[in-house]
Amino acid sequence: MAETAAVLNLDKTVLHPAAGCPLADFLAADDVRRASERHCH
């Protein structure tokens, strides 16, 4: 959401107290590595 706010307000500084990536918070690095090994040859 912070990224969307920044795109919609190019002339302003957007501060978000909990700016992060929900998808990155949801997935563990090991899960991504395993999926990559299985599906990206």
Count of alpha and pi helical runs:
3
Order of helices and strands: HHH
> What is the terminal-to-terminal distance?
33 Å
- Mean pLDDT, rounded to whole units? 78
Overall geometry? elongated
- State the helical fraction: 55-70%
Give a short account of the largest sheet: none
Q: Could you tell me the strand content as a percent range?
A: under 5%
What features would you describe in this structure?
This protein has 41 residues and is an all-alpha fold. It has one domain (2-39). The chain has 3 helices and no strands. The longest helix is centred in the C-terminal third of the chain and has 11 residues, at 29-39. The model has no long low-confidence stretch (mean pLDDT 78).
Give the secondary structure arrangement, pairings included:
Layout: H1 2-8, H2 22-26, H3 29-39
Give a short summary of the structure.
The chain is mainly alpha-helical and 41 residues long. Helix content is 56%, strand content 0%. The chain has one domain.
Question: What are the defining features of this structure?
Answer:
mainly alpha, 56% helix, 41 residues
